[in-house]
Amino acid sequence: MIGKLDKEIIEKFKAFQEKTGKHSELYIEDVEFENKKLEKIINIFDNQRVALSGNERNTRKGKYPYYGASGIIDYIDDYIYDGRYLIVSEDGENLIARKTPIAFFASGKFWVNNHAHILKGKENILFDEYLKYFIDSNKLYNYISFSSQPKLSQTNLKKILIPIPKDLNKFYSSYQIQEAIVEFLEYSFKEIEVIRERIDKRYKIFERLKKALIPSTFIKDYVKVAFARYAREKGIKFNILDIVFNDVNFSNFFDTVTPPKKIKNKDAKEKGDFPIVSQSDGLINGHTNEKNGYIDAKTEPLIIFGDHTTIVKYVNFKFFAGADGTKILKPKNTIISKYAYYQSVNRIKQQGYQRHFQYFKNEIFLIPKDLENYTSLEIQKIIADFIEYTENRLQKEFDRMDRGYHNLERLHKTYLARTFSLINWGVE
What we know:
428 residues, Adenine-n6-DNA-methyltransferase TaqI, Chain A, domain 2, 3 domains, six-stranded mixed sheet, 23% strand
């Protein structure tokens, strides 16, 4: 069977040629591919691999890396291989989780256990990087046996069909075309990485802005400008710098609430009549069918502080408290709950598995003084609404960036898939 590259990849390759000036004499649209079995074009060195027991290894103290199916697992004082080889997983966790082998290069002197294949492309026939990208394209599922555990046996490894370009002209042999395709892929992936770095940079900026949205940081220029814009939009007649705060301690800001009942983690259900709120990630951490002992935070919202996790939550519904470590706080009557919540977020840094509420209780909190035409409660509400409004705008940016990450991952996979799999096969 003979085929050619996917049309979109051909266009991308031509754009790569134009931008870089490389491989100008390679007419990629004329390149034909044929499927070849790996056994014809690779050398396998599995007979040298030897697994060592823990007692036989000098854990983390040796000079030479000891490889398994997913990478380096130890360092030892001896080696089997010396050179550059492609390591392909035979079995192991990556096959169970990904349903496809991974491939990576090992260079220099090293040892390999019996959970990986050791390969080299035959000289001037198969370019090793080309083979690695083919394996990365995740199209080897049919070659894996799923008996007691997933395994890519050497027998099946040899049967794998890989599309190999045919010689084109005096300038480009099959091997050179493989090199050019690898160079094209690496160039494309670098472009993707540049976009990813830009997104990362913006993500970090927005993350810092999000953390800046508490009263003690209102002197930041961005917040001043953002609040001025918000005030004009909402008809608010003061600037953020007009606000003066009173410092108060924990006992003048919060009351602690003792829950009538706590639900242990092991008793939490996936579905039930009432949600459970604990100190773990996520607003809701399970459900229960218990009827007595719930807390009603519908009319007077409460703040949850995770004693071990430092996670802070705003709760405005009926719920049962989670197990030990879930601290429930009720803002004083002179404090708006959402305002109290925003002052509590990011207050305490998580310092390992210990109790953090002791530190939270030592914090100083801020209550705005009345202004000429605004009470303290009105100012608190305006501040809380402004933060929520700004957070929603930031969240839209986060969501947009998350979609960008998703699209980049999909683009990366598309390059591989369309280069190695979506070949328009025709009869020779």
